[in-house]
Amino acid sequence: MKPILRVILFLLCISQVQAQWLWVNPKPQGNFLLDMHLFNADSFLIVGYSGTVMKTSNKGNEWSIKHFTSYTNRMGPVAFADKDLGYALGTYGDFYKTTDGGTNWSILNSFNQWKNAILFSSYNIGYIFGDDGSILITSNRGINWNPQNSNTNQSLNSASFINDLIGIAVGENGTIIKTTNGGINWSQKISNTTFELNSVNLVGEQVGIVVGENGVILKTIDGGDSWFFLNCGFSDYLTSVTCLDENNFITISHLGKIIKTTDGGNNWSAITYDENIYLKTIKSINNNVYVVGNFGLILISTDAGATWNEKSNHITISSLRGMSKVNHNLFWIVGDKGVVLHSPDSGENWIAQNSGDSNDLYSVDFIDPNNGWAVGLNGTILHTTNGGSNWQTQQAPVSMDLWKVDFYNSDFGIAIGDYGTIIKTTNGGLTWLNRTTGSTAFYDVFIINSNLIWISNTSRNLYRSTNQGDVWTQVATLPTSVSSIFFIDSLKGYSGASPGIYKTTNGGVNWSYTGAADYIYDINFINNNMGWACGRNGSIFKTINGGNSWIPFYSILNEKVTNNNLYGILFINESKGFACGSGGVIIKTLNAAPTPVELTSFTTFYSNNCVKLIWATTSEINIQGFEIERSTNKTDWLRIGFIEGRGTATEQQNYSFTDDINGINVPKLFYRLKQVDFDGSYKYSDIVEVIIAPIKFSLFQNYPNPFNPSTKISWQSPVGSHQTLKVYDVLGREVATLINEYKNAGSYEVEFDASQLASGVYYYQLKVGDLTDGKAGFVETRKMVLIK
Question: What is the pTM of this model?
């Protein structure tokens, strides 16, 4: 049976009709930025955690931003061979490719090992460096990546090449290695340090700088053969370095420092941008210098680092813990270091209010536009009577951390916290009564009415009080720790656990697991059917059936914009809501109302001139069906079929369609789905691309070449046929037969081991097709050199 080519194409770009989360703080986005590629002084691309890819063509004044978190934790490091072709490393060896300058990315494979650095020294030649000293090299623009011996087993963190032949790589335990023949051989150099080396940058053929932990800076003036120390005066963890010329070097640190020299390293000056911000990567073009770091930080200097302009901004970078709203317009958020943020206009703008306290605040609750309470670290209780303009401290009867506060009216409220802490007030917080129960931390409290109250703790227990919180009874125990609770009424309620969401319909006597397999920190319902939950690593879930089932509030068509923990979620109506979390994250959605279809995957199989399309939905509302459209150029589309939908469904639905492409002679095809509703409205899915088969015969240059003792030979065939691949010496004598069999259409690669042959020039020849009158359908010969 012929092999089946299976291509899984995840839809990486967000559809305009799908629910979307937008960044409110920081801006333009707040994920940790790892690396960048400078196309020129104005146009560059930045990558980072949560699959972040940012592009600008006007030096950061405007950005195109996507978050490819449907399949990766991070994007980067990144490198481009030209303005279109680029590659990025991902989480634990994941590998991605773009052919349109970084607008779209495809998943290639995984190296099953962390890879730390990637670069192209020229149009064709590129390098990847990873853990255990691994090095991969390509000489054909990334079509093939071949392992090379680095002469070290230390993790390699960074590399810099002067040209295609000469390069330096650095890594852990003071490792410095050098190649002078394009990576075929590497020699170890003495660094005189065992500290980790994080970055290297060469300028010219002789001068280079290496930086690392504990303030280590090394310099070479002989092309990397010997290195000596420079003293910058700081012991920071230095993360990256750039050389503007042989005298001007700039390095950055994990404590927000930018450290520079203008005299080759004899003297250094430093500025601290923000000691709480981790500066990760610095690169330069002439006098233009660019820095990226965590919290989405982007800095640009146009005067060789003398002054800096921030292309990102933030209200705060403190973790935000709790949210409260009074009506559709008035919102408050509290967080670490006493942060209080207020929005008077439905979340369009946020104003920092002065809480007068530096303790971390974990929860806030307003019962009207003026009266609100916030609680936090070490028994902190704050109260405002003027909408947060001023806050007064209220005396707590405990000094334990308070994790949640809930007020039923202006008099009656409950706060809970560590070591079984439960405190209540019946006079607006003028006095608080201690009702501590047990010794396990309580995480959440929910007041249903003046008598009925629920609390949850880390020991998986749910407690209930029916007398205003004076006496508590353990009602239920869940399989995992309970961090959040929410009740619709006295019978129907939900518990967010670690992991999952549980539901009760009989007042908490019984609880059943309903989904959302992640750590849940907060739950919010807007009505009996529609609810949302948020939690660890940026997870957001929604339900449209009263919590009977939960689906991610982002699909492969929808961007999960951050991997930061989300601690609070709050909706104004069915469409508009906010979530907040670690690192000052505030995100919002404006179109969260149930969409007619939640498309989660679009998978293609290509075999025997047929393309099979398979897709799945997690929910459908009023769906008539799906039109399948095909294109050869992504501009002109042809309707090739129709599959009926399920009408309205809340469970996953699976569909398939087979397209016979016999007679279509193109290298690739494009497909999209047109989702049609019963009312005649329609929306399109993203476009998926299918590689059909090679369109011509090709025999590629072996790699490496020269080689010792083995090399790889690759070729492609647009049709299935008998193929032979043989090796000859300079006298034309056959020395090896590598292939002599029928091959299907496709791309192939074999390894040629020449360990038994003498050094010299050899030729390899590919013949394709049955011989007729001594002729083959395709013949090509290439030369290779064996050097021992």
Answer: 0.74
